Amino acid sequence: MRTAVIRRTLAGLGVLALACGCKAQAVGSDGAARSGPVPSGPPASAAAPAAPSAPGSAATPSPGRDKPSYPAPAKPSNPGADRPSSPAASPTPPPRTLYAPGSRGTQVRELQARLRQIAWLFDGPTGTYDDPTAKAVGGFQLKRGLPSTGVTDTVTWQRLVAMTHEPTRDELYAAGGQPAAKPDPRCMTGRALCISKKSRTVSWMVDGKRLLTTDVRFGSQYTPTREGLFHVFWKSRHHVSTIYHTPMPYAMFFSGGQAVHYSSDFAARGYNGASHGCVNVRDEAKIASLFAQVRDGDKVVIYW
């Protein structure tokens, strides 16, 4: 009886302690109270989290230490050995022959015109690789330290082009030989001296057929050669100008004092000069042939 009273009394005190905010004491299985405060956290067997270490201690992670580290790659014993080797430079090809003695054509004419520009050639251009051309090329090569062969190869041509300009039509045909222009329709019938200012040629035509062609020179801007349709009205084999007192052999007059005739000045100076309005011919053999064939009354057509 007494024992029951004591238990009820202790239980009442426990309830009172909880109501007053005190910590409850543990009660054993036998009902006896245990001394010491009742823990409020997890059981003693649970591990408590470690407190943070002081700055600078060994436990403090350094910047970047949380990143995985890898061993540095080994350096090759021969620097550059792991790089792909560059391709070997291709050897320079030997010079290739372009033009040689005996060559013909417009390319040879251009070569000769360029040589004339730098005073290595004085005749032509003719379009034929002759002995004067070979000597001029050999001299040019020797002056520039190239093998003096007289043959135009790729290296010689490149050096020549670098020192000259592209020849004009006048330079290409300074010695004549330019192709004739398309005939004017008025030249296609009958007998006509068909004279083109564009191509600077005269063609002797009979019934639309071209029988002879040669280069000609005209008057200057102050004494221009007239253009249009004319007729030969007088021929004079050994004519001398009454105005300029200069020879006009094989003269065939077609308009006032203007005539087609041979000119020694044209033969000597080429297109560096001009006439006083006449049509100059520098090939004496061809003008002599024209003079023998042309008759009074034949047409003279001068056009562009």
Explain what the structure shows.
Helix content is 24%, strand content 19%. It is α+β, with helices and mostly antiparallel strands and 304 residues long. It has a 9-stranded mixed beta sheet with strand order 6-11-3-4-5-10-9-8-7. A two-stranded antiparallel ribbon has the order 1-2. Mean pLDDT is 81; it is low at 1-6 and 9-68.
SSE arrangement:
Blueprint: H1 2-19, E1 97-99, H2 106-117, H3 131-143, E2 152-153, H4 154-163, H5 169-172, E3 191-196, E4 201-206, E5 209-217, E6 228-231, E7 234-240, E8 247-255, E9 258-262, H6 264-269, E10 279-281, H7 284-293, E11 299-303
Parallel strand pairs: 3-11, 9-10
Antiparallel strand pairs: 1-2, 3-4, 4-5, 5-10, 6-11, 7-8, 8-9
The oligomeric state of the chains shown is: single chain
N- to C-terminal distance: 156 Å
Radius of gyration: 57 Å
Strand-residue proportion = 15-25%
Poorly predicted residue ranges: 1-6, 9-68
How would you classify the helix and strand content by structural class?
A: alpha+beta
The total of beta strands comes to: 11
Q: Can you give the helix content as a percent range?
A: 10-25%
Number of helices: 7
List its traits.
304 residues, two-stranded antiparallel sheet, 7 helices, 24% helix
What is this entry, summarized?
The protein has 304 residues and is α+β, with helices and mostly antiparallel strands. Helix content is 24%, strand content 19%. It has helices spanning 2-19, 106-117, 131-143, 154-163, 169-172, 264-269, 284-293; strands at 97-99, 152-153, 191-196, 201-206, 209-217, 228-231, 234-240, 247-255, 258-262, 279-281, 299-303.
